[in-house]
């Protein structure tokens, strides 16, 4: 499975500005939370990706090292994008993991949530920030929850042919 993010960011193509932000510890984070069983029992894998493509793996449930998971990041003028590749081999040992086999999805699905934590220039002195810039957190499914990792708010990610 490949998860793709496209993040609007007016300063994304400015290497000097990005270096100044990173010097202050202001990297951006993309969080991908996946319950590969689809059971909704609160067990999930979290892949936290920094805007330089580094991934940290966390889990609620059995330990997981993210073997085989890969990432790629691209910066362009006005946006940056990231891809996270999760091979089925990385989850084969998870009890109850669902994934298509052969040519049919067989009604299988995962549960998950996606979050972008925009930090960029929010840690810069006010005079160096882009006008109106502020720290933001955008997420897909946790509209009524304060936690990005709240499994009760994960959405259904259906495999289809």
Describe this structure in words.
By secondary structure, the protein is mostly beta strands. 6% of the residues lie in helices and 37% in strands. The protein has one helix spanning 15-23; strands at 2-8, 29-35, 44-50, 55-60, 70-76, 79-85, 109-118, 136-139, 155-158. Strand 3 and strand 4 (55-60) form a beta hairpin. The model has no long low-confidence stretch (mean pLDDT 82).
Topology:
Elements: E1 2-8, H1 15-23, E2 29-35, E3 44-50, E4 55-60, E5 70-76, E6 79-85, E7 109-118, E8 136-139, E9 155-158
Antiparallel strand pairs: 1-6, 2-3, 2-7, 3-4, 5-6, 7-8, 7-9
The overall strand count is: 9
Shape: elongated
Mean pLDDT: 82
Q: What oligomeric arrangement do these chains adopt?
A: single chain
Determine the N-to-C terminus distance. 13 Å
Structural class: mainly beta
Strand content: 35-45%
Q: Biggest sheet, in brief?
A: 6 strands, antiparallel
Low-confidence stretches: none
Radius of gyration, in Å, reads 17 Å
* Count of alpha/pi helices: 1
List the helices and strands in order. EHEEEEEEEE
Q: Helical percent range?
A: under 10%
């Amino acid at each position: 499975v490949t998860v793709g993010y496209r993040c609007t960011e007016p300063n994304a193509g400015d290497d000097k500005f990005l270096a100044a932000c990173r010097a202050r510890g202001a990297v951006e984070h993309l969080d991908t939370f996946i319950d590969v069983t689809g059971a909704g029992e609160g067990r999930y894998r979290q892949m936290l990706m920094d805007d330089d493509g580094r991934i940290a793996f966390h889990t609620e449930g059995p330990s997981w090292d993210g073997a085989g998971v890969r990432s790629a990041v691209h910066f362009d003028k006005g946006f940056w994008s990231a891809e996270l590749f999760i091979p089925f081999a990385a989850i084969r040992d998870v009890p109850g993991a669902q994934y298509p086999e052969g040519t049919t999805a067989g009604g299988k699905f995962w549960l998950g949530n996606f979050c972008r934590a925009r930090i960029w220039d929010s840690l810069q002195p006010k005079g160096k920030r882009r006008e109106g810039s502020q720290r933001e957190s955008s997420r897909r499914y946790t509209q009524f929850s304060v936690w990005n990792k709240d499994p009760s708010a994960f959405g259904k990610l259906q495999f289809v042919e």
